[in-house]
From TrEMBL:
GO CC annotations, alphabetized: plasma membrane
Organism listed in the record: Vespula pensylvanica (Western yellow jacket)
Ranges that cross the membrane: 12-30, 36-53
Protein known as: GP-PDE domain-containing protein
PANTHER family: GLYCEROPHOSPHODIESTER PHOSPHODIESTERASE 1
GP-PDE domain sequence ranges: 90-362
Amino acid sequence: MHGTVELILNSALLWIFLEATWTVLVSILYSFRIPWIFWGSLIILIGLKLVRVPPPHASIVNEVLGVNPFFIGKEIHTTENQGDGERYCMSVIAHRGGGYDYPENSLSAFQNSKEKGCTAIEFDLVLTKDNVPVLYHDVTLERLTGQKGILSEMTWDQLKELDITFNHPLRNKFPKGEKIALFKDALELCLNNDQHIIIDIKEKRLDVIQVVLDAYKENPNLFKKAIVSSFNPMIVYLIRRKEPRIVSSLAWRPYYLSRESYSGINGTGPSRSTNPFKHLAACIMEILYEWALPSFVYYIVGISAILLHKDIVNLHVIEQWHNRGIRVMAWTVNLPSEKLHFSRLFKITYLTDTLLAEKHRVHNI
């Protein structure tokens, strides 16, 4: 269905392009007047400028993310006033703290990452029913805890004793189990460990905006250590609208709105909706968003990085985003051969689920 919808939309766009071209030619050659498309484009451009939240200064971005690994060894990465980021390069990020080695999104995973020498952590932020910010990735509890239930429909008192090691392959390694982590505890641990943080917002409710803003207010060091990210550009935009100093990114993969998963080798996972009309609407929305994201969404939100599914990353994609002033990060890279490919050929930061045999590269410039 996705291919058919894309073909229909492309056909409509081609017709619009041809009609607009004809109208412009008639306006110029026959009526001798400025075509309406010029004024329309000017109005849209002014509108984009008005609603845009500019990204933080490069010195702040480099403070948080370090030097872009793509430019290491090239003179173009060296600029004045880059701050402390000039001495640091975020080459590897522990995805959910390294969920293959330790329970994902857990305090023990973050501590293990520190001990392994990993300088950067990514974790998922959601809210409980009573608006307690916690670290969890899935909508449901079953995959990690073995218990049935939807996290957003449960209170913190109902969740705080659940063991997230229940289904972990290395469960015997954690005889005392592991509890769902509170957002504030995770921030405290990572900041005390001098780790950089990617706060991946999975929560859909707008209440999470104030949670993030309060966290930055209570922990000003986050402005130098953390980056806010989400698949939802509106969440990131509203956060940065209130606090433009926050460094941000957007995450993207093909078929995110219509399919539960994606792999370059295995293709798409099951549909997110069994309703054919909802699935059709999702297909249309993601085709439009795939066009809008690199066209103007990144510009309006003011992101400094883009987190892309590893199977769609290539040198051309990296170059396109670099031309927009955006650095590329790839997720999730777990095979040793892939890690070498992304670090040596692509020279970009990657997120990984395992830190075993990982060679962390902290560059001193």
